Amino acid sequence: MLPPAPALVTTAGGFLLVLSIVVPVAGVLLAFALGERYVRQVASTVVPVGLAIAVAVLVLLPRSDGHLVYLLGAWPPPLGVALRADGLSAVMLATTAVVICAVAIFAATDFRPQSVEARAPFAFWILLLAIWGALNTIFVAGDLFTLYVALELLTFAAVPLVSLDGRAETLRAALRYLLFALLGSVLYLMGTALLYGIYGTLDIELLSHRVSADSGVLIAAALMTTGLLAKTALFPLHLWLPPAHAGAPAAASAILSALVVKGSFFILVRLWFDVMPGLPGLAAAQLLAALGTGAIVFGSVVALRQERLKLLIAYSTLAQIGYLFLMFPLAFGASGKLESDQALAGGLLQAVSHATAKAAMFMAVGSIYTGLGHDRITGLRGVARALPLSVLAFAVGGIALMGVQPSGASLAKELLLQDTARTGQWWWAVVLQAGGMFTTAYVVLVLSHAFAPSDQPITLIGPAPLSRDLAALALALCSLFLGLLPWDSYLPVPYDATSKLFGIDALSKLLLPVLGGAALAILLSPWPHPLGSSAAWKALMRVVGPLRRGCLGFGSLIERGDEVLRQWSAAGISLLLVSLLLAASMFAAN
Amino acid sequence: MSAVTVFGLCAAAAVGLGLYGLIANPQPLRKIIAFNLLGSGVFLLFGIVGRRGAAAGFGNDPVPQALVITGVVVAFSATALAIALLLRLFQIAGSTTLNSRAAASPRSDPSGH
Amino acid sequence: MNIATVFEIALAAVVLGLAIWTIAVPDTYSATVGFIAYGLLVALIWVRLDAVDVALTEAAIGGGLGGVVLLGAAARLRDTEAMTTEGPSLIVRLSAAILSASIAAALAVTILLLPDPAPTLAPSVVANAGATGMTNPVTNVLMAFRGMDTMLEKVVLLLAIVGVWSLASDQAWGGRPGPRHQADPNGVLAFLARLLPPAGIVVGIYILWTGADHPGGAFQGGAVLASMWLLVIMAGLVDTPPVRSRWLRLILVGGPGLFLAVGLGGLCFGAAFLAYPVAFAKPLILSIEVAMLLTIATTLGLLLAGAPERSAER
Amino acid sequence: MSVARDIITVAGVSAGVFFFFAGTVGLLRFPDTLTRLHALSKADNLGLGFVVLGLLPQTGGLRDGLKLISIWMFVLLAGATVSQLIARTARQSGSGK
């Protein structure tokens, strides 16, 4: 038995972690009991309180040595359950609070309970608070089983959001999502059972002292990783994501895309970096990054071929999830352990900037949809004039996601690129750059349609409340200026990384993805462009015509492959294959 | 052979059968049943682990038992939610297929509405 | 090989046979029935593993109520069997079978290789049982040592209700879940529904009460109460309550609400969140369990009833 | 004394097992719903009755004995009702003939 580590004592301010869970949960209970007429009021009371708690954690954390601990019921682990927060938790708590806040402002006009249609607002606000509580639990829980319960809480809150409008397609999407997510959580639970059987505890801190390269542990790690990948929708386990994220109401899509997939990703980070940093081995990490690369290629190419804006953004989420997994091989040090905090910081920053930017983009598209009554990309001409704020929010979010300085994405990319140089894995640098170009491609594609002049003025069919656009814009700006924040008390971001964000060097780094992205957009998007009749365009087409035809053929091939992979049985087989491959590579490493 | 071995193999087999059923059975209801089978296999795994940890006068470590009780209730709620979604889907669409392509064909206007 | 081992092997064989039947039989209704039988026999395995609390839960919730949900759905979907799409191709099924079998094999090997002596928390559960004044170790873990998990799991149940209700059409919102059951008021079902509930309610409360020191508890008792309620509903003696009803909402949040309130009391006045003062631990836990009993029974019943379908007036 | 108790137990449980076995054979082999139901309810009522009877001498006291007997009573009640309902449904749908 180990001597009780200092982490097994409640620290001052640890009660904030309890409050970060209890406040949203109390909001759920209260909103449910008070009923339809008061849900919005309850939510609008809980949201600022939750935000204040997240800020308080941010303030307190550096003062208490970077760690907050709370022993629930004053029972120390392994018997009891501890809540713990470190820099990662604090950053994620704050991101979640900010995004939820913006979505709540955005949704306040949408989900206003009227006398007749009280159902959707009732469900939406309760589920929003429940997602918040579940995510906060995920960020601060120190026990693998508590994490399982939180994961299920998250699923149960997310699934009904998908089918809120009750159409058959969204019901089908929700059912697929639920079943696949359940499969994922059962795999996770299986690993938990094995770990308890081997070590007699599920506490992350205690496990990290006890784990060794036992065959059972490796099996458990492979199963849990696969389960979490299924919940994160990493390629090729993404069958549920596009229909679910594209079918939900805009506010719900924003939450699902920005935050919900990050929950299981965060548990995966905890599992690999905190529970067993020495076990997975480089091969398994390369496998994860390879799947991430697949996600970037499939997600981006299929996104460029979408006709509907919401589906385009859903596929972009798929690609961005792939981007998050590039950090795993880069975090390996010379000793074969996951030890580079810099790569971890880069991955987490990417998650944060994607959360803010993607939520803003989904919200902006929601406004465009309400305004136009459709979200066909080819029908976007002139929308920049009709809905300037919505398009601006989309543009700023897109630019932040592309990695334009000083966005969080650019800082994340800088950190990861430094680690590719450090570890000599140049191929991931190529993928990182290509990912940036693909992101640019679909953002440029949408913006070029939106900014194209229209022959006749657009008539808006729905109202466009200012508060919605402002919420989206604020979130997008947040993402754009993330790179300027003082990260060093929470994440190990070296000072020189931030200073490189400006200057000639930075400008060249900006131009490359923009030009590459524009080229990719021209080559891979099958839709006729509004400028298509101009002379310059025709001249260009004469030059690149054959190349473009080839690229379009490649694109349709990828799209067909994506359709096959999104069949239920194909996805299930991929799931089992991934888990066996992970197990094999982990065994090879030990 | 002890009870742990016998039921341990039984649990592993239930997991395998559940995984297969979840992947290969086309009807959603069968998938839900397979999920329950899979879940019960995993719960049995906890039972084996707890049985091996019998000590202090208990024939089974109480902690995994408590985890299983929590897990059973969660699995039941999941089943109920999945069934409700399935029945609603059947009520609206008249079929229960999860295959998006087969289902999307009757209504394929580009806006999706 | 003693007689107990022979019995265990026979039990495992029958359970496995039922599991295979459940997966392989073409007819969905038969598969459901097979699964119910499987669930009941798995409860026997739990008894053999000396986990009676789990056996009760598995029989009541896993096999019993879970079986009812599945059976109801299978009956309603029975006519659609013919029009469902054809299964996946042979190659797909074969590779799925091979991969699933390899995972099962890996799991089986891992189980056989679990370390000896096995780690256990049983001694520390016993050592700390004095803090709650109750001797059922499982109840202690659920309500004290891992109280957070139990509370969050109650919220999961509530979210399942929200999820099921959110599937209602906008017109039916606020109305009564499920179809109205019409039964012969002098029929045998109505007779049973009058005769059994008083005894069933006593049994449910007894299971809760005895759960402090013996196998039992709020889940198991709640499942018994829920089945009594469903029996009365199915006999047409009472109708499901409209979901907008205020008392219903209060009962549904009562369990987690009280749990949370007691937890917060610990945070403000006691040692920690979810810490019980030793002098009041047993009464506090029992009162939470009583509230949870009602909440669980109502939640389980409503999860079985489904989404609101009819306006409250009829 | 304990030998006498064990003899009663063995005899009772064996009788119960016989009824369960016969009931199961009937359930599998009889041609239609009503006769199967007949076999099943016999097995439930008598088989479980004998098992309970056989176990009674092994119980620790009056309380446990009463619990056992009440379990049998509940099963009788439920079995009788369910058989009734199944039989009625079978006759209405015509599969009982």
UniProtKB/TrEMBL annotation, chain B:
Which key words are in the record? Cell membrane, Membrane, Oxidoreductase, Transmembrane, Transmembrane helix
Any Pfam family = Oxidored_q2
Q: Which domain of life is it from?
A: Bacteria
GO cellular component annotations of the record: plasma membrane
Q: Name one GO molecular function term.
A: NADH dehydrogenase (quinone) (non-electrogenic) activity
> Which residues span the membrane?
6-23, 35-54, 66-87
Family label:
Belongs to the CPA3 antiporters (TC 2.A.63) subunit C family.
Instruction: Kindly provide the name given to this protein in its UniProt entry.
Output: NADH-quinone oxidoreductase subunit K
UniProtKB/TrEMBL annotation, chain D:
A GO MF term: sodium:proton antiporter activity
Query: Which InterPro entries has this protein been placed in?
Result: PhaG_MnhG_YufB
Pfam families, from UniProt?
A: PhaG_MnhG_YufB
Q: Which domain of life is it from?
A: Bacteria
Please give the start and end residues of each transmembrane region: 7-28, 69-87
Keywords of this protein's UniProt record, alphabetized?
Membrane, Transmembrane, Transmembrane helix
Q: Which residues form a coiled coil?
A: none
Q: What is this protein called?
A: Monovalent cation/H(+) antiporter subunit G
Organism per entry? Bradyrhizobium barranii subsp. barranii
